[in-house]
Amino acid sequence: MLQITDLHAETAGKTILQGLSLQINAGEVHAIMGPNGAGKSTLAYTLGGRPGYEVTAGSATFDGADLLALEPHERAAAGLFLGFQYPVEIPGVSNLQFLRTALNAQKRARGEAELSGGEFIKLARAQANALGLDPEMLKRPVNVGFSGGEKKRAEMVQMGILAPKLAILDETDSGLDIDALRVVGQGINTIMRAPDKAVLLITHYQRLLDYVRPDFVHVLAGGRIVRSGGPELALELEREGYAEVAA
Ligand code: ADP
Ligand code: MG
Ligand code: MG
Predict the structure, then answer these.
(1) Cβ–Cβ under 8 Å, residues 34 and 220
(2) Is this prediction's ipTM beyond 0.90?
(3) How remote is the CA of residue 41 from the centroid of ligand 2, in Å?
């Protein structure tokens, strides 16, 4: 599904990714762990197409197509979802407006029929109920006045509605209490654990991996993957620290 080969990327004139290769197949959950400053967020931003992050060498294909040639909205329409640590607040725009606009824009880009208002409300209510978010909250402005846990539930509802093929979640677990962590874990498992979907979890700590068991764990250090293994590698990192394992 995602094939990254020898990726080099820079931001603000500084080379951050230096030959990163990674293959993610449908049905797999991968975790990338690494010390602060290793380039984890740079990888997420680069794959998402964020302005200011420039690829200088290497390639990334998504379902066989050149991901790096696509605009950010085209990457989303192709089935890429990015989640970040700090959800954005959008005063004046309700969750329902935001989500319906995003979903229908993606459907248009794929040449699919858009959902009517009624169809969309039904879908949104069903997703909110499935993920334990009071559907009434969908009428409120995006994330404004939401608690940390509510923001995470809303993000999972967003992911459920957009139904991406690949979710890249960058430290989405940082600063969460146990209840919110469980919400994120259940959301990822419910929405994304499927034979035709895949997940890339970027995390500094292994505790989210107690809820979402990865098939593969990779260590990112110095802008490339320096070690790969199974779930046990996350426990080894937690026990021994990055310096030891990445050396
Ligand atoms: P991580 O997510 O693993 O903590 P980042 O990808 O955020 O690492 O950062 C990798 C390196 O790139 C760090 O040295 C960081 O200071 C630098 N960096 C990231 N974004 C920028 C930016 N916008 N401007 C300048 N330096 C940046
Ligand atoms: Mg960081
Ligand atoms: Mg980061």
Answers:
(1) yes
(2) yes
(3) 7
